[in-house]
Structures are given as structure tokens and as C-alpha cells.
Amino acid sequence: MSESDYKAALKRIESLFDAAEPSTPEGEELERLAAMVEEYEEKHFPI
Questions:
Q1: How many domains in the chain?
Q2: Separation between Cα atoms, residue 47 and residue 32, nearest integer Å
Q3: pTM of the entire predicted model
Q4: DSSP H helical segments within 1-47, as ranges?
Q5: Burial (CB count within 10 angstroms: exposed 0-12, middle 13-18, buried 19+), residue 13
């Protein structure tokens, strides 16, 4: 995932966050994006 992909994923997560229901295509997309963002952040912003 590139930095631009990361930023796009954050924007998409924001748009899905309140509307996505579990076990729907939007909810599954939100889960996938959140996992990808988490992996990116762990790699690029270690604590």
C-alpha cells in the first residue's frame, strides 16, 4: 500500500464508518480497509 492508497483508504473509511452495517458489502469493505490501514500504520508509524 502506497501513501496515496493509505490516504484514499482513510477517506473511504470515513465515508463508510457510520453507514456500513456488519455482514453487508459496505461492512466487509470497511473491515478490509481498516485491516489494510492498520497494517500500513504498524509498518510506517511504529510505536
A1: 1
A2: 23
A3: 0.86
A4: 3-17, 25-44
A5: middle
Displacement of CA 11 from its chain's centroid (Å): 8
Identity of the residue numbered 31: E
Q: Report the amino acid identity of residue 7.
A: K
Owning domain of residue 27: 3-44
Is 90 exceeded by the pLDDT of residue 47?
Answer: no
Cβ–Cβ < 8 Å for 38, 1: no
User: Residue 11, CB half-sphere, CA atoms under 13 Å: how many?
Assistant: 6
Q: Give all strands (DSSP E) within the chain, no chain letters.
A: none
